[in-house]
Amino acid sequence: MSPSIERQQLQTVHIVPLTAFNENDQLNLDAQAAHTAKLYEAGMRVYLPGAGTSEFHSLRPDEIVKLVKVTREVTGPDTLIFAPIGYQVGIARQTAVECMEAGATGIMFMPFAHPYMSDRGAEEYYLSVMDAADCPTLFYKKAEIPSDALLLELASDRRSVGVKYSVNQMHQFRTTVSADKHGLEWICGSAERFAPYYMLAGSGGFTSGAGNVCPHLSLAMHAAFASGAHAEGMRIQHQILPIEDYRARAGDSFNISMLKYAISLTGANFGPPRPPQRTLTSEQEAEIRELMEPILETEAELAQQKSPVS
Length: 310
Hints:
It holds the Pfam family DHDPS. The chain has helices at about 30-40, 60-75, 90-100, 120-135, 150-155, 170-180, 190-200, 215-225, 230-245, 250, 255-265, 280-305, and strands at about 15, 45, 80-85, 105-110, 135-140, 160-165, 185-190, 205-210.
């Protein structure tokens, strides 16, 4: 664990903020700042701006740097910000350095989009970028590469702080966590649908996209499981599941589009997702409006409870 990060700081909800675009398909940094400030006010303290649900693969490297910068500008010094890193290795090195200069706490390696992968190639890629940025590092596992064996080997590196694990094989996950002798934080990378099972198997936190529209609910769910109140945690998860189940339709292809429309129901205009994300039909929008109504009502009640009495 990096000396600059305490393990308990990672044991929370890791929010992947939606990315706001304007009518010209450029970053809407004013809307992004306002949204991030609301997430911070709700209690979010770990941010992954520009990552998967933030449309990583449709963003230019300079846009990722701008998202990191605005996140740092509107959050407090207690905030951890991990910049998503991928693409060609030279671009990855440069983006990592620029994101650190823009205020990132560290970097998170995104799943490889490259063909013909091996652990050896992955390790060389990781270390090349880590040597350039020299900062706290998260690894995102969503496929066979990186292997659990490689992750356990990388755990000995002083810059390694955690793994965003999204393979959803609970015995494999538990076995790997138990084999870690260096104290990495193993994070559920599959959001609220799988978080209870990961947390039971050794995860201290989970990533969230749904937290963009119901941050208080996501944080309450985490708090319940972290305190051992599993029945309460499952009750809250049941309230959030309509979002997660809808996003998972058709091979998770509604992941971003659903949330982009759902956030418009809160009064925020983030624009449509960039291609090749799917567009929604009027029937699908109606379905989302219906399922979001009780969730937004509960979210508003939790926000009101948190607000100081005037």
